[in-house]
Design brief:
This protein is an alpha/beta fold. The protein contains 15 helices and 16 strands. It has helices at 2-18, 27-34, 39-50, 59-74, 133-138, 163-167, 169-172, 174-180, 219-235, 287-307, 327-336, 366-377, 395-399, 414-417, 430-447; strands at 78-91, 95-101, 105-107, 109-111, 123-130, 148-151, 185-189, 214-217, 240-245, 248-262, 271-277, 314-319, 341-346, 354-360, 382-383, 403-409. An 8-stranded mixed beta sheet has the order 1-10-12-11-13-16-14-15, with helices on both faces. The chain has an 8-stranded mixed beta sheet with strand order 3-2-9-5-6-7-8-4, with helices on both faces. Strand 2 (95-101) and strand 3 (105-107) form a beta hairpin. Helix 2 packs antiparallel against helix 15 (430-447), helix 10 crosses helix 15 and helix 12 (366-377) packs antiparallel against helix 15.
Length: 461
């Protein structure tokens, strides 16, 4: 019996030591710590103060990567590295515009990413007004005869930002349409909702069309232009504008994704990927879009790290060059693929209060959804039926078959700031940011230790 007992003891000991050890997270305790934690605000404050705007492919974005590596190292994460990739790089130049007839006015204008230059002498032309992008699309090709197309769409304010999907089209591909119609340039009412005299920039794609100068004017200037157009009709006179925008392409430059990890106790389990994008537009300091996102996700991950080792590895990615075409997200998906991943999550809609959670999980995970939903309810967050997307940068990964959970923020005021000079640190509410961190740490503490079958289901491309 003695030898038998010894044998059982040895077997039990072997089983204990072979089973990966991991921390048992107390969700309520982590939420309480998050609501008192300043790490997220300190990250975004440091990034916007010490680096500032971080236009994709530029020296400023490179400085941001160096800053990120130092910050993630200081926070105690592991396996920190930069995955470089290359992209064509566009930079801004001089930007001025005036209405010259029938009533002279200066306007505040900014070039859209990939806009062509007017040249140093600028350009002048007659405005042809379209109320919607659909109106512009409806006219015959090559019918604008060198005139300047102007679209005065009116984007509406929504909590979830859903109006951006429709009204954003005037910026996403409107200049390409204008070029196909024969326009010499295009001007749009800013894709935004604020009434400061701040134009909203953002990327545009010309596809196979000839690039033309394309700019956004502030909403007050757009509404003034609308009134002038109506008066000009009664006078029987054309409206003419003069503008000068001198952006340029500086060739292929280097960008990169900054990656850090909390290694899990069981490396055989598919990992969790979280993050936001490090780059920003150059008009503000990129606090809301998306300094807040990298700060929120990283602060939540640090709370997990400080509480002990999770079962699954948590990988933090500060994506590069999102604003100009989701280059970082596509580079990550191409390098790593879906295999070995479980869930992707991203924060890229400012720092407003999180109010709902969305899921994209394999069948049979009702219990996991219920556990997460119940835990989030204490923070005033409820479930939503729409499937999660994983966010812009994780989109390419999710399309390969990786699962996703979205924590949706209140974006009622987001497009007051989005891509404008007003995207600065003072617009972030520290208390709301802490609520975000509390929501994120809640979800991470559950999924990082979950034994549910949440492995990616790779799909053929």
């Amino acid at each position: 019996m003695k030898h038998l007992s010894t044998g059982f003891a040895a077997l039990a000991s072997a089983l204990i030591f072979s089973a990966p050890a991991y921390a048992q997270f107390n969700v309520a305790e982590l939420q309480e710590k998050a609501l008192a934690d300043d790490t997220a605000y300190e990250i975004v404050e440091g990034l916007t103060t010490e680096v500032g705007p971080r236009l994709a492919g530029t020296e400023a974005e490179a400085r941001a990567r160096d800053w990120a590596v130092k910050k993630l190292t200081a926070l105690g994460f592991e396996n920190i590295r930069v995955d470089n990739f290359e992209l064509p790089t566009w930079v801004r130049g001089e930007e001025v515009a005036q209405i010259i007839a029938p009533f002279p006015h200066n306007m505040h204008i900014t070039a859209l990413g990939n806009s062509a230059s007017t040249g140093e002498d600028g350009m002048e032309g007659e405005i042809v007004h379209f109320r919607t992008l659909a109106d512009l699309q409806a006219i015959p090709d090559n019918s604008l005869n060198g005139k300047i197309a102007y679209v005065s769409h009116d984007m509406t304010r929504t909590q979830d930002g859903s109006s951006y999907g429709y009204f954003g089209g005037v910026r996403f591909f409107g200049p390409r349409v204008a070029s196909e119609k024969g326009a010499s340039a295009m001007v749009i009412r800013s894709v935004g909702t604020d009434y400061h005299r701040n134009p909203h920039t953002g990327n545009t794609s010309f596809g196979d069309a000839k690039p033309i100068p394309a700019g956004a004017i502030s909403i007050p200037d757009a509404e003034n232009l609308d009134r002038i157009i109506e008066r000009a009709k009664t006078l029987g006179e054309p409206v003419r504008i003069r503008m000068k925008m001198t952006p340029r392409n500086i060739g292929v430059q280097t960008s990169g994704n900054v990656i850090a990890e909390i290694p899990g106790s069981d490396p055989s389990l598919p990992i969790i990927v979280i993050g936001g994008h490090l780059d920003s537009w150059d008009l503000g300091t990129g606090a809301v879009d998306d300094g807040a996102g990298v700060a929120i996700t990283t602060a939540a991950a640090k709370l997990i790290k400080d509480a002990g080792q999770p079962k699954r590895t948590i990988r933090i990615v500060w994506f590069g060059s999102e604003e100009v075409g989701i280059w970082g997200g596509r580079a990550y998906a191409e390098k790593y693929g879906a295999k070995g991943h479980a869930i992707a999550m991203e924060s890229d809609f400012g720092a407003g209060r999180i109010y709902r959670v969305e899921f994209k999980l394999p069948e049979g995970n009702h219990a996991l959804k219920t556990e997460i939903t119940n835990a989030l309810s204490t923070l005033g967050i409820g479930p939503w039926a729409a499937p999660a997307s994983g966010g812009p940068d994780n989109g390419p990964l999710v399309r390969l078959g990786v699962n996703a959970i979205d924590l949706q923020q209140d974006g009622t005021d987001y497009f007051d700031l989005h891509h404008t000079p007003d995207d600065t640190l003072d617009k972030i509410d520290p208390a709301m940011m802490k609520q975000n961190v509390a929501a994120w740490v809640t979800v991470l503490s559950i999924i990082a230790n979950s034994e549910a079958d949440i492995a990616a289901r790779p799909v053929e491309q």
